[in-house]
Amino acid sequence: MAVRPDGAADSRAARVLVSVPWIVVLLGVCALVVLLVVALLSFRGREREAGPQAAPPAFLPTVPAGASTTGGPTPAAVERRSASPRPSRSSRSPSPRPTATGSPTPGRTSVLSAPTTPAEDPVSARYQVGTNGWNGESAILSVANPSSRSVDWQVELAFDDDTWALRVADDSGVSVRGRGDGNFVVRGTRSLEPGDSRTLRLRVGLGESAQRPLTCTINGVDCRIG
Question: Which of 1, 46, 94, 213 has the fewest CB atoms nearer than 10 Å to its CB?
Fold first, then answer.
């Protein structure tokens, strides 16, 4: 069995240790080369993607087929339009005009067909004859307002020519004026409210309360006598 000397073993180990740094350097160089190749390939791919885009196709103006070849050149930008013939007045059909009918418009009532309601009597009066003598009953004049509004009232009484006096027992809110020849005007100084009435006691002449008037009107409307 051959025995190697110790010096030979030491020399082989020294060689291995000396060759290790070069292996590391070689591996680093290979890695750098690989990274350089990858960088070059990626840079070329980006250049291809960022390439200039193709310009849109240009369209040249075309000359209409109906253009005359004998005349001068027609500009391409000018478009010729044939004028359409206008219809004559005789060819136009007149539009029908609406004719007025006698039927009333829906939703509107005709004035003639509206029912007429009688006018409301704003105020009324009644004259009741009293008994004879100074101690007898006075004549009663009743005034009523059946309307829905307040009204002013005036009663005109006409007696015989020899009747020269007319007195009211309660003259509050009432004025009496004589016109002569037996004519008197009894007027309210305040308006009569809707639905209200007024009763007056009259003395005609010298205690002749039983005298009956020839005419009696209130606001131009005849009174009721009796």
Answer: 1
